[in-house]
Amino acid sequence: xxxxxxxxxAEARDGLAKGEYTSVELTEAHLKSMEAHRNLNAxxxxxxxxxxxxxxxxxxxxxxxxxxxxxxxxxxxxxxxCTEGVxxxxxSHILEGFKPEYExxxxxKLFENGAVMLGKANLDEFAMGSSNTSSYYGNAINPWKGKxxxxxxxxxxxxxxxxxxxxxxxxxxTGTDTGGSIRQPASYxxxxxxxxxxxxxxxxxxxxxxxxxxxxxxxxxTVRDAAIMLGSMAGHDAKxxxxxxxxxxxxxxxxTGDIRGMKIGIPKEYRVDxxxxxxxxxxxxxxxxxxxxxxxxxxxxxxxxxxxxGTYYIVAPAEASSNLARYDGLRYGQRVMDEGxxxxxxxxxxxxxxxxxxxxxxxxxxxxVLSAGYYDAYYNKxxxxxxxxxxxxxxxFGTVDTILAPTxxxxxxxxxxNEGDPVKMYLNDVFTVPASLAGLPGLSLPTGxxxxxxxxxxxxxxxxxxxxxxxxxxxxxxxxxxxTAKPSGLEG
Amino acid sequence: xxxxxxxxxxxWEIVVGLEVHCQVISESKLFSGASTKFGNEPNxxxxxxxxxxxxxxxxxxxxxxxxxxxxxxGLKAKINKESVFARKNxxxxxxxxxxxxxxxxxxxxxxxxxxxxxxxxxxxxxxIERLHLEQDAxxxxxxxxxxxxxxxxxxxxxxxxxxxxMPDIRTPEEAGAYLTxxxxxxxxxxxxxxxxxxxxMRCDANVSVRxxxxxxGTRCEIKNVNSIRFVMQAIEIEAKRQVExxxxxxxxxxxxxxxxxxxxxxxxxxxxxxxxxxRYFPDPDLLxxxxxxxxxxxxxxxxxxxxxxxxxxxxRENGLSAYDAGVLVAEKExxxxxxxxxxxxxxKLAANWVITNLFxxxxxxxxxxxxxxxxxxxxxxxxxxxxxxxISGRIAKDVFEIMIETGDDPEKIVEEKGLKQITDTGxxxxxxxxxxxxxxxxxxxxxxxxxxxxxWFVGQVMKATGGKANPGMVNKxxxxxxxx
Lengths: 492, 484
Description:
The complex is a heterodimer of chains A (492) and B (484).
Chain A: H1 9-18, H2 23-36, E1 43-46, H3 48-63, E2 74-78, H4 105-112, E3 116-121, H5 159-166, E4 172-177, H6 183-189, E5 192-195, E6 215-220, H7 223-233, E7 263-267, H8 277-292, E8 296-300, H9 308-323, H10 343-354, H11 357-369, H12 376-396, E9 402-406, H13 422-426, H14 433-438, E10 442-449, E11 455-462, H15 467-481
Parallel strand pairs in A: 2-3, 2-4, 7-8, 7-9
Antiparallel strand pairs in A: 1-3, 4-6, 5-6, 5-10, 9-11, 10-11
Helix pairs in contact in A: 2-3, 5-6, 7-15, 9-11, 9-12
Chain B: E1 5-7, E2 10-23, H1 62-74, E3 82-83, E4 85-89, E5 99-103, E6 112-117, E7 123-135, E8 139-141, E9 150-152, E10 159-165, H2 172-189, E11 201-210, E12 220-225, H3 228-247, E13 255-260, E14 265-271, E15 281-282, E16 289-290, H4 293-301, H5 307-318, H6 322-329, H7 332-342, H8 347-365, H9 376-387, H10 393-406, H11 410-416, H12 425-438, H13 440-447, H14 454-464, H15 471-483
Parallel strand pairs in B: 12-13
Antiparallel strand pairs in B: 1-2, 2-10, 2-11, 3-16, 4-5, 4-15, 6-7, 7-10, 8-9, 11-12, 13-14
Helix pairs in contact in B: 2-3, 5-6, 6-8, 7-8, 7-9, 9-10, 12-14, 12-15, 14-15
Protein name (chain A): Glutamyl-tRNA(Gln) amidotransferase subunit A
Domain Amidase (chain A): 25-471
EC number (chain A): 6.3.5.7
């Protein structure tokens, strides 16, 4: 029997449909893989009993001829999605032990479509990070190894999700992306990650980081898998006022393989000073592949790109400082209090003990930029720049169908690197935040290896609610790049 | 009407602006489906959103939005076609989100006007600066446990309209009239029940003093005063305090103060330095509220006749004085009552009966119009009995006393007690003859020119007939008999 964990989501779907194996078998194979690769710390909470139970129910459903689009497919769920009765931590100490009485809209949809949950994937605390090193539950580790054999970061914040998929510990995983948290770890782990248009997937039941940016999306082995999974995650939700009242297209049908005549934009501002040669080359190779496939390559300009990172690191912490105010030790999660403490004492102790350093830093930045006297200089200015960034893209999309750029400025780095320098850490997001600020869909897929033999990704940025074009072009690029390398750090 | 505080160094004028929080009448909360019912067990009207569980999102309640627009239209205010919800950030135990969703620089309703009906019948207009929608907080209970405070989240997330006046108010009476009128308007509209004692209408007063004609002084905000009477008292007391401070050479510090109605003083609650930095910013979980003209005009069509219009109609159609009309429209129930009484009858006579007799009796008994023992229909019948000479005005007052006691139909009372007016000439003449016969000296006095003695005779005849004789007939017959 083939190793069921090496299947793509689409292959497993088709195999289940043909009755080649059951969901229980598929699930058990993944549970075994999770056990074998526990050293990667990709999961905060494993839910094997629940997984088997769901798989059994799924096989029964299939037997009755009621198979959904994700029927019987075992996936990892980023531990930012609230899951009913299953501990949801956001990788924070402050939420340790918190078991929601509700299921997030996205996971509800996935489960309704038949998906099986293997466990809750590790992430940066409250999704704040680019390395998964801010998790209270320990670092997730990239299954890829550099030449020196050091442990590498899987990227972040959806680092556990990316590591789980790359190490065949899940057929696919949910991620969330606020400034690159799906695309960057996908690039670091050599998988596909799709951040949909803001509003495509409901945010209801996802622990909020920055409400105007957060968006759920699939993290998968292939572009086709991303298309399949997005179809089961997306859709309007009356419980989320910012979710778009739009029909969900058949994303898989968009993978026609034909991009002849399409216009691909190359933004010159992304060719930043000091861009590593190998990233430059990766990009050029991608351009050549799309040209060879019959697309027309066009230079575009996104003049406000250089302000994107600064804008992002004002807007996101500002919203976070407010969104995280509810973690006060009163109603759920951790409370730290001594005899005779006042309410303020309890707030301070609970939050000081409950939040990690990076979260505290962002709460402070956010509180500062919203403060009287600084609001206009920072937050208000950032909103104006954000508008300009959106307009840059809107202008570019007047002439092109999609934009091609690198996902990240480097391959995965060693754990511990960049830790002392938050700004250097933030620079990992330089290519991903502009699309986040503009609310646009972005797809990262692996197209080459670094000199160290580590995966590197390119991203396609699309028009609002045009994930179909992004997926279509992504499918062609995927075929042309023929990325077949497997993580070097995995035994067996 | 000028109101000045005579200080030792000269006169001072007071300047007041009011911020009133009106709880919106709606089935469910501003951003959640939880019930707004008052008086339920603590923490039973609480949704996941109200408790600020992780990942929960607000969804605006369209009913609350319509109520706010309706109120704006009732205040003759500008409805802003685009408004934005903003977060007001602060930590408190009864604020689960750690922020209140409110509106900041883009409120749903802009400038408007309220016409005050003053006790002397005059009017004054006070500007409305804005009306915005916001969530109420929960309730902290500090008296449930010796060591801990308890929190009730039933109120958390209930919709409030904060209505902010311009600093146009110059006397405590105007503040009272403003609140009375505002309460009447929201009650007419059905957008707030206006019950200050239940907290569904709460008032903060911004008070400052100045020399007449000079620029505004530094103001203090008196928080959460819970009756109109207390608001008036608090303003008066606070203004006097400020005058004393200023005249003693001190300065007014901008601060928040509490009114202690027991001690009759205001006390500092927190100074400007201690004031929160609320870090307002647009709530990214909510889209701006955008209205088109059709939406607004649809709500406009639902507007009932409001106090000012009703007052004008009563003056125009029923010939009432501004004062009487103002008294009648002050509460919708009073106006409705009056309209039933006045229908098909003399409007002024009806107003007299309703205001002088009925309201007088109700005030004495401390009963509201809704609990009046005398129905509008029965009061109308009583007026009919006077108009068709079945009873005299004097007897009518007695009948009314009985109606207040028993709530009975006046026709029944008149019948049972035999109070029908005597209009039989013979019977009246009989009584007159007896009185004349018994008082020949007084008859002579009248004949000698002391006309006013005639009144004494009328009184005697009325007494003899138990008040039932028709006074007009008595008068006429007496004249005929004595003066021939």
